[in-house]
Structure formats: C-alpha cells, structure tokens
Amino acid sequence: MAVDQISFDFYEFLHRTEKSREWLKKAVEVMPGGVTANIKSFAPYPIIMKHGHGAYLEDVDGNEYIDYLLAYGALMIGHNHPKMKERIVKQLEEDGTNLFGTPHEREYRLAKRIQSYYPSMEMVRYTNSGTEGTLLAIRLANAYTGKQKIAKFEGHYHGGYDKVLFSINPDPKKAGPIHTPTPIPESKGIDPYYEKNILILPFNDLKGTEAILNEHKDEIAAVIIEPIQGGFIPATPAFIQGLRKITEQLGIILIFDEVKTGFRIGIGGAQSMYGVKPDLTVLGKVIGGGFPIGIVGGKKEIMMESGPKHSSDVFDVSQGKKTTATEVLFHSGTYNGHPTILAVADTVLDILEEEGKEVLKRTERLKKGLEDLFRKRGIPMQALGKGTIFSVVLTEKDVKNYRDLQNSNLSLRKKIDYLLLNEGIYTKPMNRYSLSVAHGDREIERTLDAYQNVLYKKL
C-alpha cells in the first residue's frame, strides 16, 4: 500500500516500523505475500517480530509490545516459560530422543489427564493441529453415521480445508436470510462438491437451527460448533442445551470445536461451563504451549472407528487381505503424539492448575477497566467474552452472532487498534484479546494507560 493511500493515522505506525517494511520487501521474493499464513498479514504490512519473553514481543525495530494476540490464544503460559524449557530438556534426557515413531508411555499418561478435565472424551487421538483435529472429528462422524453432509454455524472457523471453509466472514448482503444462511465459500479453489454437502446454521437461533436440522436429518452426519464463537461470542445456555437435545433426538453427532476455548474458559473448557457433553471434542492451541498439537476425543463407539485392524492398513501391500483399507477409517501422522510436545502439554497443565484462576481474575479486571474507560469517554463498548479471552466490541446492543458483530462500529475499532500498536499494545487489528499467566498487574495497568491515551488524546 502506497503512503499516499494511507490515512494520517498510519504515519506514526510507518515511522516506528520501517525495518518491518524493509523486511517484507525481501520476504515477498521468496514467500507469496511475504508470509506463510494469510492470517498473519495485515495492511499496510505485518509487524515482524524477533524476540518474545513472558507477556512481551519485540519487533525488528526494537519496539516492545504487550502481547495480547499470544499466537491466536495458544500461549496461555506466555513466551518462553522457564518450566517449559526445563521440561523439554528433561524429556530429551529421559527418553533419549525427541521422536520415537512408535507408541510410548507419554501418550497414555496425558490422555488420562485430559480425560480428568474433559469426561466426555472417553477415548482420544492426537493430531498435529486443531485443523487436523476437526478434520479427523468430521471423518469419524462420517464413518460412524454413514452420512456425508456436515452442518456448521455462520461465523465459525474450524480450519482452512475445503469441507468447512464456508461462511466464516461472509458479506452479509450475500449471506442469505438470517434464519437460513447461504453457504459462502471463503477461498478460491474449493471443490463445488463441498458446497453441496455443507449446511450453514444460524448461531444462537434454536428455532432456525432446529428447522434446518429436521429438514436434512437423514443427510447430516454431524453438527460442528464453536460453543463460544470466535472465542468471545458465547452461545446462550438455552441454545447450547437445546442443540444437544435436538442432535441426540435426530441421531446427529455433535462436535465441540474447543481449539480456542479449551483451558481458557476454565480448565475444563466451554463444555464444563455449560454442563453439556458433546459426542466429540477437539482441543488444540493452549495445551501445546506454543507447539503444534491437536487432540480429538469422544464417545468410545465413535472413536473406535479409527482403531487399526490387521491387514487393512492403507500401506499394507501384503496379499490375501481379509479386509480392505476402505473398510476402516484411516488416521495417521508421523508426529502424532510427539513426545516432546506431550511433555510440554503436561507442564502446561501443571502451570494452569497452579495459576489459571489468577489469570481469570486479571482478565476480568482488564475487561472492567476497559469498559469503564469507554463509558467515561462516551463510546458504546463491551468487553465480550468468557474466561481468559475477550474482544472489544463497540456497541451497546446484544451481540449473539456474526451478523450482530457486523453491526458494531468496526471502523472505529480498527482505528483504535492501530493507535494502540503505536502505544505498545499488540494484537492483530480486529482480533480478540487473550491473556497468559505472564500478564500481571503491571501489564494490566500499562494497557489501561495506553487505552486512556488513545481514547482521550488521539481520537
């Protein structure tokens, strides 16, 4: 973006981040757009970081930021936690390797611990990301039910693959009626097959959801949902409990995507808060402490679809098979259950058991402080969210779904976000806020001071 196309508010940003701009000029020569994930980019260019510690990031220009993006919520123990480093070294010394490529004891031990927090996860499988986790959960649902259609909610994200990459951030003018949303592809290159096999449901609209599910009950394998949309727009208790009842009645598998909310809405996730047991759950982000992991778990009879059977492996080239690979659900991955990452996950749980409740308290303090500042400034605002994750939403109206969010003051929110970057408060513009055990009273005070400076001196 040329300087003459940027509003005046960008000039301080451009001055502070000159080396980021120069770095991107080199990066675009070897990476499309200069990034390895589209979500990491924003206008006029992303800030390039070089160091992280505790609750802070430092960019290539030497600017320091209090980090509220936290790798999209993954770093609930903060950057470079000393206990995590100790555990990695200890695991390497104990196991003598960073990768067995075989079953190992840590897989069992962590699975039992996860089950103590998430009783609905009667059996578990490990993956390498939340995206891989939702992909496996959907495959399990398809295999178990013998049906192919999937229903997801408008505004919800479950990974960047064809089957679910619909109606995440659709143009409201093209998204169809509010009670019967239209599937809108969110990428080029999606096979039209998937548009025919996806249904879009209206979040927090039990009547509309029930009508769609009843109409297509014989075709739908599963409903997949973020119980708290985007990590910060909660389902109402009546909606989530009603959805559980409807899916049970219709024989549709209910998948909770708790990649964002797992361990952040209390250690037991959103399902603990709502008192609802889904058929399948997907975890990720926080549990990996910054390393790639996903965990899928649920009812034993569904999870057993992925159990290996002799002479049915996709790689088995022996003759005289009694069964074929297509008669079982194939799930594999060289790095599934990576011993170093599982050791880190165990440490994350130790830290959260000890300090997790304090993070919840500090999050509430920050939310209240922000709401007070906006109220005194006369700007409608709510710090919307549960647990240790929230978003600054500029409206006084109830926000129950994606379309409500679109009706908030998004342009002012974006302006505030860019001004806050100049104050050393980091989240990608328009993104949610996540807190970690490293965000203490000092960081809360500095954040409130930065907001006060923006709201009262720069707007």
From TrEMBL:
GO MF, any single term: pyridoxal phosphate binding
Cofactor: pyridoxal 5'-phosphate
InterPro entries: Aminotrans_3, Aminotrans_3_PPA_site, PyrdxlP-dep_Trfase, PyrdxlP-dep_Trfase_major, PyrdxlP-dep_Trfase_small
Entry keyword Transferase: yes
Keywords associated with the record: Aminotransferase, Pyridoxal phosphate, Transferase
Family according to the record: Belongs to the class-III pyridoxal-phosphate-dependent aminotransferase family.
Protein name: Aspartate aminotransferase family protein
Species, as recorded: Fervidibacillus halotolerans
Lineage: Bacteria, Bacillati, Bacillota, Bacilli, Bacillales
